[in-house]
Amino acid sequence: MIRVAVIGAGHWGPNLIRNFHNRQQSEVRWVADLDQARLAQVRARFPDVQLTSQADQALRDPEVDAVVVSTPTSTHFPIAKAALEARKHVLVEKPIAANAEEARELAELSERAGRVLMVGHVFVYNAAVRKVREYITSGHLGRIYYVSMVRTNLGPIRVDVNAAWDLAAHDISIVNYWLGATPLTASAVGGTWINKGLEDAVFATLRFPKEVLVNLHVSWLNPRKSREVTVVGDQRMLTFDDMNLSEPLRIYDKQVTGDRTKPGFIDTFATFRASVRDGDITIPKVATGEPLKAECDHFLECIAKGERPLTGAKEGMDVVRALEAVQRSVRGAGREEKVE
Question: Side-chain half-sphere of 263: how many Cα atoms within 13 Å?
Answer without folding.
Answer: 10
